[in-house]
Fold 3-hydroxyacyl-ACP dehydratase FabZ family protein.
Amino acid sequence: MATSCSPVRGPIRVDADGRVTVTIDRDDPIFAGHYPGFPIFPGVGLVECVHRGAQASAPAELRLAAIESTRFTGPTFPGDELTVSIAWSEVDGGWRCSAEVACPAAPPPP
């Protein structure tokens, strides 16, 4: 698998069930400008975690073609551990990935 540049420093871990986890590094440079004094992990970082998790759990060598939809329901902070649940399905001769990101330490969305 090809390696790529990423704005997220934390490692992606994939367990035997295909569940992806990533611990948000407290010292990740992505926090430098988002927001000084009250760091929040930016949405682009969450999308990147899903992208890297999808690459690591893909049923074949794939490339990202589109992001159809995103919804952010709460903030992610330095040190949070994220769980990314990924489901793959074959669609029209290709693959579609559906993902949900959860932070067990965060309260559930309203």
